[in-house]
Amino acid sequence: MYDIKNLGKIKNLEANAPEAMKAFWAFDKAALAEGAIPRKYKELMALAVAFTTQCPYCIELHSNKARETGASDPEIAEAVVVAAALRAGGAITHGTHAMKGA
To answer: Residue 82 sits in a domain of what CATH number?
Structure first.
């Protein structure tokens, strides 16, 4: 199912929902723009979220963008383990709902 070529179909979304897609692209650009948080860190954050949501498109796009902004393999590896820790932590904390206790 995953094929990077599918991103070419975004044009179909833009043709059929032009205002919403314009708003999306503007928001996406603003969210990832240089600001109080440098772009490199924002791209590493985007990668961590992509690993958590397991979106192969986002992983590919944001790993490339992270590298373009100067992210190294060790920084990307740390984003991977931060994402893994958060997913694991979510399972642990939600697991408490299944426990019976005093």
So the answer is: 1.20.1290.10
